Fold each of these.
Amino acid sequence: MNDMTRLENALDVTEAKISARGVQVFYGDTQAIRDVDVEIADKTVTALIGPSGCGKSTFLRCLNRMNDTIESCRVEGTILLDGEDIYDRRVDPVQLRAKVGMVFQKPNPFPKSIYDNVAYGPRIHGLARTRAELDEIVERALRRAALWTEAKDRLSEPGTGLSGGQQQRLCIARAVATEPEVLLMDEPCSALDPIATAQVEELIDELRQNYSVVIVTHSMQQAARVSQKTAFFHLGNLVEFGETGHIFTNPEDPRTEAYITGRIG
Amino acid sequence: MTDRGAPARRTQSSLFAADRRTARRNAVEARFRLYGLLAICVGLLMLAVLVVTIVTRGTGAFQQSFVTLTVELTASKLDKSGTRHLEAIKKVSTFGYAPLLAAAFETKAADLGIDTPLNPKEMADLLSKDAAATLRDHVLAHPEQIGQSVEFRFLANSRVDGYLKGRVSRDSIADDKNISAEQLDFVDALVAAGVITKTFNWDFIFGADASDQRPEAAGMGVAMLGSLAMMLVVLVLSLPIGVAASIYLEEFAPRTWWTDVIEVNISNLAAVPSIVFGILGLAVFINYMHLPMSAPLVGGLVLTLMTLPTIIISTRASLKAVPPSIRDAALGVGASKMQSVFHHVLPLAAPGILTGTIIGLAQALGETAPLLLIGMVGFIASNPPDSIAGALLSPNSAMPAQIYEWAKRADPAFYERAWGGIIILLAFLITMNTVAVILRRRFERRW
């Protein structure tokens, strides 16, 4: 029975990896997000854009329950990952975060070696039984993050010694090492120079083949370059959500148009 | 119109000459720097005065005058029965040994051809009151030497010692019944002959305290062991309790009215005078729990109470200093709260925790007031403890309490030892702080 319903669910959501319905977020008494409905498709890049303070990062952090660490934060509505409500009481956020990885705005490698940075997730989740397996996982993750050629000879050096762009790719490698299904990226390029940004963007495009990626960005060009779907947030509301090409060329809402043409922001 | 006026005004001021406002601002800044420099100079001056005073007054304690004498262990006096039975030899008290010392001095004076009006007993008064006991202990340990002549190094009397160090002068002995000008003449002759010498005094560092009459024999060693035992108790209790409390408060506890109250009270505890902890220890540990009086265990418990707030405050500060991005990173890859704390936050905070702990320990090491109340002063810690349990439970003193005790006693020779004790205590504190700095550097480099 159970398996049957699971199967149905799975069939049901081949389109949507994550579906958020009526999400409201409060910080204490102030409401940060109002009635957000978003369907995030598998193996696509979804960009969340909008002016500062519009709630896009807050929404992103709802998707792996990072908001739980903020005491005053309260989330209402439902967010389904493969049809399962991630805010259900039975869900352990730790388990959820293994499935929904996250890359932060500022590169934040652990002050450990490059190897240990990548191996940390697999270690705590018991993904490798032997050292050789772990080595393989680390290599695969670093390759996916396009860091292997640069880092393979200095795996034992501290990750904090890398350049900013390399650090961010290391963080991406660390996030993909646990084999997540969804990768959340909170302005991953805002601390990087244009060259490093280009590398990370290229990387995001490659990651799309294996994961569904949700990216928050301030740069509309970046959203246009890397994403297939775009959601525009304004003052805590989801104003418009659709195909990236459609949003940027033919926005339906005047606010979206105003934002992408630079009149609000 | 205004456009024309503006360039004209601008040409009047030159970058090469400071205008009035700038000159005034620079003067204020220069004055402020001067005040700062002055403040630092005053601080350094105080430090220099402190160090110079301590060193000049205290170094004397590390040297001690010894008299080298050949004593004939006369069989007829020490073993009247002639059987060499230890029990029979033990019957002779230190009074029985005193004549031997006098006789030894007499022969020494005769050998060296020193002309002195002193009688042999007065000569023997130059020795410490310890000397007869030293001799007796030696004989009891080596009864086979009875009948032979053996060379000994006896402690000189504190007056003689003071005379050699310049503390006692011929003027100052006018009212002193313990030593006479003739005895000093004799001392001069013995020093010239090399019988009385001043050497480094290991017994001051490793020896036990001595009674009022024998300042020359007093040492810091047993009190040092007392302090060590207390520090052990403090470390074993306050580090785990303090760190666990800090981690809970900083990382896990919800921000509620209760945690606020706890926080405020921990800060308040850090400011509570140490004597309050002392009287608490007296009431709770000794009167209520009936732990032994004067025991380093009780001292350690009291000092633990005192050190805990220091450790908690410094641990929380260093936990807070760990960037939140590290916690996010750990949580982001699916680490549990506890994993993120123990794998990432705690190692980063460790240098700070370590430093806080060592500084807390150093503070506890120098603490005297609470020890007064639990009875770690006012008696003579004459025997080193024989086991770890003994070190914790048998009455002992501690370094600062010992210093206080010495400073209280009448004989100026004890006063010198109090300063010497302060040098030892400071050496410990400086060592601990240096270790803290070195450990912190090393840890930080690793991360």
Amino acid sequence: MLRRGGSEFGGADIARNGSGARVDLVVVAEMVEPGARVLDVGCGDGELLRLLAETRGVDGRGIELSREGVNQCVAKGLAVVQGDADTDLADYPDDAFDYVILSQTLQATRHPRVVLEHMLRIGRRAIVSFPNFGHWSVRLQLLFAGQMPRTDMLPYSWYDTPNIHHCTIKDFRQLCTAIGARMEKAVALNAWGAPLRFNAPWWFWNLFGEQAVFLLSRKG
Amino acid sequence: MAEATTGIAREAPASEADHPRDSEVARFGADKPLQLDAGVTLSPFQIAYKTYGTLNADRSNAVLICHALTGDQHVASRHPVTKKPGWWETMVGPGKPIDTERYFVICPNVIGACMGSTGPSSTNPATGKPWGLDFPVITIRDMVRAQAMLLDYLGIESLFSVAGGSMGGMQVLQWAASYPQRVFSALPIACATRHSAQNIAFHEVGRQAIMADPEWRGGRYLLEGTNPRRGLAVARMGAHITYLSDAALHRKFGRRFQDRANPTFSFDADFEVESYLRHQGISFVERFDANSYLYLTRAMDYFDLAADYDGFVANAFKNTPTRFCVISFTSDWLFPTSESRAIVHALNAAGARVSFAEIATDKGHDAFLLDEPELFAIVRGFLDGVGQARGLSRKR
């Protein structure tokens, strides 16, 4: 998938913790119960699957669009298939996984709503992380420069970006409501990778969260 | 009298069929008949095989290699007929991805073949003559059933892995479907769950070339002291094209002339590619039996895994404990990536643990036999990963 994982991400721009793990991935990993069955959609070079295997002892699988990413993963012993989130999630049976994770990939899918619905069908829970297009720096660039914003999280020009469905935290919450997903947990991270105050109002998250991580489950 | 004639007429492949050199042979007597899909039994029969490495104390490190249509048991050591290196020495051996310092590798010759496992050039014990076309038609499932009997004979309950490309990959899939509890991991490479119409068509051309050779004698050539060399060579030439790719042929030969500056305005092998194909055909005949070629291509034609499982491949792998690594090659048009993708879709639908990698190469179907560093890295990484799950130590 088009998640710009690990090396492709541009390394230094992305906040990492003391042990070198990407902060957003650590946040995702902390939402996963140990020993769970996990599908990572758009698993890149397998950094999250590795982290999950090492820190949570999960039974992890991955789907990745790029051949290079897949082959790197498989050569590391990870169970990863080449595939497209937009078309291949339909093959998976209901309730096949405890968690289906979409990390920094939602905005690159052609049909984010369909992908999210499949995730909640295949997995008991879904974890989605995405760059927040409502972040103040994005808003200011559009307002004052009058140009499509470019940030550490979104480093592409408008004409070569793989990211075709940007959304804000507020937009994403509305989509969750529309498809009947329950928001069990949410974390917004600022530009330094630090979580925003948990009891801050949504508008504050939407303005100061550079990225967000949501833990979702099916209603009912 | 007939016996004496037979003795004289039988040529090198036939003796290799009964008494293979540089191989182990497991013989199954009347008490252990092989049940065939054709509805008959084969008994007695034998399997020629090679092993490399050492079986560990808890018998958990055995890897079965399944060979392709024209392969044999000599996977990682010198071929007794051609004197060439084993057909997969790049993959199998000490320190190689399928590391014989870690794993106990078993490679049997499939039944129906001609290198020591019972096939049409073997002696039919009922008549004392070569089986010829009296040999029953066999299937991929029959090959696998025979291999399972070999494992029983060797006292190996569960395989750490089963690996193979092309027809070998079909056997790998059949192994995982027939004996899921005996297959810890599976590496089906450049294969499919069924033989396509196009591939059946190519095989039919090859078979017709053999049968059109007057020396084939209705399959009785070993008895009559002839050999359908030309027919088998043409079959091989046609098949060989399907193992390559347009790009690879162009890269290797282009339109270059063979040892001449100008065309001869004749039907000599003016072009390098013609000369190459002729060589492929001629050298193949030295080591392969024409009737075996008929039987093995037929077995591949009949292969359709879904047919045995209500039309759904996924049913073949329901609740499978096996860990799969499916591999395809971009330029393989005999078993294109779409076929591997169909395997993966079925495995996903069955909830199986599967990896799938497509390797970019212009070498076509034969890429699985060639020097493809990415292939080696993937196989090594996959086996390392499942080895940890199996509790195999990194190095013995």
Amino acid sequence: MKNIKKIFSFALIAYIIFSLNTGCETPVSQIVPYSGNWRFIFTYTDGSSFADSYITIQDTGAFCGKLTFSRTDSAIYIQGDVSANGQITGGFANDCSGSVRGNLSGSFTELMGAGFASGTFSDTVINSIYKGSWIARRN
Amino acid sequence: MKTQYMLPVLFLFIFSSAAFSQQNQKTSFGIFSGVSLNTNSYEFEDNNNLFDTSYSNSTKTAFNLGMFVIYDFDVNFGIKFQGQYANKGGVTKVNTFYSNDLTMVERTYTNTINYLQFALLPQLNILFNKNSPDSKAFLNIGGYLSIKLSATESIENQTLYQYLNTEKDISKSLSGTDAGLIFGAGIIYKGFLLDIRYDLGLSNIVGIEDVSDVLSIKNRSINFSIGWTGGF
């Protein structure tokens, strides 16, 4: 009798976990092909890299991640959105809920499983030298 | 002055080669078919070395079919011209791990690139018995040139509870040709052929201008074939 109770409880818990998890998943057809973890590297117009960031692109294509400056260790946030066809738009902010300034644009490409993205940015609100290009890869 | 010497030397060389060929020439042809294990090698060539741990490659099994002509200069040395249908590509898995607002997805890319492939392969023959030239072992090292016919990418998206398969035409994203080296070996026994070849692609097959500067994808293929060969 004890065993039956145990088995019944275990099955019930497993069913509840299963049901809850199924509900949490975004429908797979709505997940952007570029969702996942990416590493971004930012370079100035002269080609020297100055900051990098590990960013998670969410199922919807939205993202917000910390951008750490390699020399000063200070950080700002980059926020944006990737469309299903790989176009990225966004900018810079003081935190993930803050207002976005400047400009971050570019495109994502995925060919035979290899993901790559590149584009340009400018955040001349903080400093006129904050402009250049960025590249990113799945990480 | 140099030209005056060179012309007779060249004439003698051509004449002696032709005379040798007429005495020893043997031309044979053959057909073959088999399976190939294909994969792609990926290399990012940007200045900032971004390590990537999310990829895993595995082989894709495909079918090949072709024909060849061999011209033997002597019993131990010949040259093979081969034309075949080659199905190349590979399988790449990319994993996305679960976190906030991110569904865990395993994406499996099965890449299929169909080529018409031509190869020129110098061949070293080792006869089993001097009296039976139709049974021998051989070694090939040469080059190939492939012309792309079509290319598709099948993407399987597998989450914990869902599955979605999509297919994409990627022929415009890949270059029209591929070139590389072939290393092969085999045996011919009374006309029946058993052959193993390794195709080492040397060309970057990425055909998108900006992306090909930083991403290099190359074809790799091991082919096992059986066939038949006979003389003209």
